[in-house]
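To fix ideas, we give here one paired sequence and structure record:
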Amino acid sequence: MLMNYALVAIGSAIGGMARYGTAQAINSVWKEPFPLAICTINVIGSFAIGVFAHWLLNTQDEGLQNNIKLILMIGVCGGYTTFSTFSLETLSLLKSGQTLVALAYIAASVALCVGAAALGYKLGG
C-alpha cells in the first residue's frame, strides 16, 4: 500500500512541475485575458489521460495496469491538469465582468479536452 502512495506522489510531483513549467512558458508570451496556459494544460492532460486509459484497458498485466493507473493517470495527470484552477480562473473572469471571455474559456476547455481525450484514446493503440 505504501508503494502505491509513493507512485502517486512521484507522478504528482512530475505532473505539478510540468504544469508549472508549461504555464510559465505560455504566460511569458501570452498577455491576453483568456487563460491560455490553463486551457492548454487541460487539453494536454486530457489527451495524455486518454492515451493512458487506452493502454490500461489493453494490457493483460495487472501489475502494469496498476502502475499505469497510479503513476501516470492519478499521479502525473492529476498533478498536471488543473480543473480546480480552471474553476477559479472562470470565477475570476466572471467577477471581473469578462463574461464573454469566461464563456469562451468554458466552451473551449470542455470541447477541446473531451476531444483530446477521445483522440488520445484512439491514438493510444
